[in-house]
Amino acid sequence: MTKNKSSKTKKGEDKFDELTQKFFETPKAIFKFLTGDSAQVILGLLCIAFSVYLILAFISFFFTGAVDQSVIDHMTEKDAANMDHEFANHAGPIGARLAFFFMNDCFGIPAFFIPLFLLMLGFKLVRAYDVRIWKWFISFSILMYWFSVALAYFFTPLFSESFILPGGAHGIFVSKWLSSQIGVPGLIITLITVAALYLIYLSNETINYIRKLLNPTEWIKKIPLTVKVAEWDAQKKEEKPENEPEALEEPKPEPKPAVKVPEVEPKPEPKPEVKPAPEEPKDESFVQLSNPKKTVSDAKDPDFKVAAATTSEVLDVIQSQPYDPTKDLENYKPPYIDLLKDYGKQKVTVDMEEQNANKEKIIRVLHNFGVEISSINATVGPTITLYEITPAEGVRISKIKNLEDDIALSLAALGIRIIAPIPGKGTIGIEVPNKNAQIVPMRDIIASRKFQESKMELPIAFGKTITNEVFMTDLAKAPHMLVAGATGMGKSVGLNAIVTSLLYKKHPAELKFVIIDPKKVEFSVYAPIEKHFLAKLPDAEEAIITDVNKVVQTLKSLCQEMDDRYKLLQKAGSRNIKEYNERFINRRLNPDHGHRYLPYIVVIIDEFGDLIMTAGREVELPICRLAQLARAIGIHCIIATQRPTTNIITGTIKANFPARVAFRVSDMMNSKVILDRSGAQQLIGRGDMLYLQSSEPVRVQCAFVDTPEVEAINNYIAKQQGYLEAFELPEVMEDVEVSSGGGGSRGDVNMNDLDSMFREAATLVVTYQQGSTSLIQRKFSIGYNRAGRLMDQLERAGVVGAANGSKAREVLIGTEQELEALFQSMNI
């Protein structure tokens, strides 16, 4: 019996525990359901359905409101619950009452913004569209209140006999109150001011329109100044009264016409008579800008000075209009933000337990080694936390720095870095990796205000610092960048982040890329934008350079482009590309003298170590030359390697690449090569990097941009109108040696010892009508020296003309018959 009682008691206790557990778990389950996706979708669908119902009720109100209003006005509180009343509104009694309440008792016609907002809220909850619901709420609220007051004041008198109140009772009350307080002019000024502030809130472009509106000279200049001379003469003479012969008989001094007229023998002037203006053909009635069709007698006419002055004004207006380098692709639109993946709001969460535990461990380790500190503070970043400690008086910094390994052992961290001291602060920093690192999406960086409002020439957004600030740098001021990191540490993602930043900020007319990819697969994703952003050698099949031989030619071609640009700057009297382009845009440089708009050129070289191993000094010399001289003319180099050793990154390269980006490397020696100090070997990988341009490196978590995102951006750009061809680099004409005849340079070619492929090369050039060394090299798969030697022999034979800079040579023979006659004369 006792056992049975005890078993029953246990069963009762178990049931009680189950009921208690269910009682406490039920609110959690309800809260979990309400915060889950299912509840949001259900609530979103309800919002969409209710908004459609309200729109139907509001629209029906315009046609049935008069009938329903009489029913609603005579209803009492008891009748409100009675459903026997017949309403004409298609949304039923409830719809009729809602429409009457919102349309007449509240905001009038602007009440339509209420269901529109509910519709946007429903789309947001269902996640059909990614909208900023607070921005829509603020916009709809401002528009509803503004239109309610404006419609009530301006249109209520027009609807005095109608049941519709355009601005509703709210608009009538507010407009009357404002007009009684500040008067009708004050009400109108208030409406205009609120509208202007709202437009500024929507877009910063409104500020430019306001400035133009307040500055009449800007839009007066745009008034067409070309006038019809005949019509002006006729109008001027009609204005002269007929009863003023004395005024006509007075001699008038001959005005100086603005247009230049030829000198002729003087003729006796006839007596001036008032005659109607002669009819002129329509095509000749307008003032011509370059060759005015005016005779000497017209030039002596006093009225001719107006037409001449008008011509000069038109010339001034045209010359004052700046040149637009983006005019060729004026419809080009930069990539939009939704092409980048949305990882949600990446808010840095502070784990206070982890933070406090790390603080205690740091204090304990330092105390065990006899180091006392006065304070310790923590700054949490995306991947690491910076602990700033203030040592007590008399403590040497070197003593704390030597405890780096002991602190890492105590914290059981992947790798810590000690900054002793932190520049600009009287503290020592200890960087400790977070247990739960967070991604820094490229979308958040591009959408940040700092990037959108940046005025840099070549803005590069790398990611976020420890303090969660967007980190950016200007490649134009860098001016060259060295990137290094072990395999899988984020180097390729960092290069993609650099290119993505520039693609989002620059127009194809302003920027060109030269991409060298020895791995052949890393940057092939940028091939679709060849006709927009890429530069290549003439007749090159692909813009992404993967062949080592082509790499050497491309670098020499860039050196030739650099020399050509410096010549243009010398002729223009400019010191750098920015001054030169400003003068060209302001039409202070004549294109007939060889001047042209110069886009920036960014050279990206991946796997630099492999190029040094295969090509050696042939690659290093032009890179060093570009690094030393190309800054002023807008050519900037970015070289990347996964082996930053001294035989690859030489002292000459390091001296000319002041900007360094270091991802995690294998050992301290590699870190010292890339940064001139240790620290890169202690990074945690996955985009954790150090950027060095000044005295101290900055730790940054590089933004993550995945390959599908890069493909989406490039495909979006490729679908838009591009140039006919990629930007062509100049064709370098090197000095070549001949196989016999004593050797020599170009011009000393022995025509008695022609190349065995001379006949085929001549036929190819005449067929294609293009005298290009690269064409011969590509078609016959021969080296550049032999192709250059063939081109020299063709020049001596009269097949092609002399070298024409970066352009292809002129082909002097037009048909194959003429070529055959040349072969017979040469006995070949």
Can you walk me through this structure?
The chain is α/β, with parallel strands linked by helices. The chain contains 31 helices and 15 strands. The strands form three sheets. A nine-stranded mixed sheet has the order 6-5-14-13-12-7-11-10-8. A four-stranded antiparallel sheet has the order 1-2-4-3, with helices on one face. It is globular, with a radius of gyration of 39 Å. The termini are far apart.
Provide key terms for this protein:
single chain; 828 residues; alpha/beta; 9-stranded mixed sheet; 4-stranded antiparallel sheet; 31 helices; 15 strands; 9% strand
Question: What's a quick, concise take on this entry?
Answer:
By secondary structure, this protein is an alpha/beta fold.
Q: State the total count of DSSP E strands.
A: 15
First-to-last CA distance:
127 Å
Low-confidence stretches: 223-232, 239-309, 735-749
How much helix is in the residues?
Answer: 40-55%
List the strand order in the largest sheet. 6-5-14-13-12-7-11-10-8
Overall 3D form: globular
Strand residue percentage: 5-15%
Largest sheet: 9 strands, mixed
Compute the CA-based radius of gyration: 39 Å
Which structural class do the helices and strands define? alpha/beta
The number of helical segments is: 31
The averaged pLDDT comes out at 78
Give the topology, please:
Layout: H1 2-34, H2 37-73, H3 77-80, H4 92-106, H5 113-126, H6 133-155, H7 168-202, H8 205-214, H9 216-220, H10 229-238, H11 245-249, H12 296-300, H13 304-320, H14 352-368, E1 373-380, E2 384-391, H15 397-401, H16 404-411, E3 417-419, E4 428-433, H17 442-447, H18 449-452, E5 459-465, E6 470-474, E7 481-484, H19 491-505, E8 511-516, H20 530-533, E9 535-536, H21 548-572, H22 577-585, E10 600-605, H23 608-615, H24 617-629, E11 635-641, H25 651-656, E12 659-662, H26 668-675, E13 688-692, E14 698-702, H27 707-718, E15 727-728, H28 758-768, H29 773-780, H30 784-797, H31 816-826
Parallel strand pairs: 7-11, 7-12, 8-10, 9-15, 10-11
Antiparallel strand pairs: 1-2, 2-4, 3-4, 5-6, 5-14, 12-13, 13-14
Helix pairs in contact: 2-4, 2-5, 4-7, 5-6, 6-7, 14-16, 21-24, 29-30
